[in-house]
Amino acid sequence: MLEVKDLHVCVEEDPSEKILKGVNLTINKGEIHAIMGPNGSGKSTLSKVVAGHEAYEVTQGDILFEGESILELDPEERAHLGVFLAFQYPVEVPGVTNKTLLRQAYNTIAQEQGREELDPLQFEDYAKEKLELIDMKPEFLERSINAGFSGGEKKRNEIFQMAVLNPKLSFLDETDSGLDIDALKTVANGINQIADEDKAICMVTHYQRILDYITPDHVHVMIDGKIAKSGDKELAVKLEEQGYDWLIDTAAASV
């Protein structure tokens, strides 16, 4: 579904500031991946670049989605294809309700993909089913996007949006940060219910704790803009026990 090939990325305003330095990553349908690593290693940058964030410039490499390069596509065009990004810091949009935004987004994507659009009553019934996945009340549909939401509510709202829009590929940028244990379990349960054999999910996280509730097929560790090591869930457990220093030392020695 996704193939990242020798991806080099810098900040558009400062081409000398290289953030990604040759990332290679393949994600297949039905897989759950976790990307871990210390602060500043490039994890969040990778998720934003896949989604098409305009603050970054790809200087080398390619991103293939379902076999086709998406480098020249705008963020909304990538979304229409089925790429979704859950934000690390969800923004507030006062005056625009969840229901209004999500129905418009759902129908726009449905139109692009040749699926049936939903009228207001159909969409409300559909959205209420998805609310149950992350234990949110129907009143959330009428609230302005993230306005006045707690940190946990904002993160659950991101997973709700993911459930409604039903993307093929989802990048979740530190969705677990700032969550207490109950909210973490709720979010993880929602992700597990959304995951299926036709979708792919990539979780960006600092910590192993969300992986107590979601079992990844692959775990990758980013160090200094590259994937330094890949493995299964046991790699995440080792990182929790030993930290990242042993991998940082190994990466430095190989330069």
Automatic annotation (TrEMBL):
InterPro entries: AAA+_ATPase, ABC_transporter-like_ATP-bd, FeS-cluster_ATPase_SufC, P-loop_NTPase. It comes from Fodinibius salinus. Pfam families: ABC_tran. The keyword ATP-binding applies. The keyword Lipid biosynthesis does not apply. PROSITE patterns: ABC_TRANSPORTER_2 (PS50893). Belongs to the ABC transporter superfamily. Ycf16 family. Transmembrane segments: none annotated. This is Iron-regulated ABC transporter ATPase subunit SufC. Keywords: ATP-binding, Nucleotide-binding. Residues 2-249 form the ABC transporter domain. One of its GO terms (molecular function) is ATP binding.
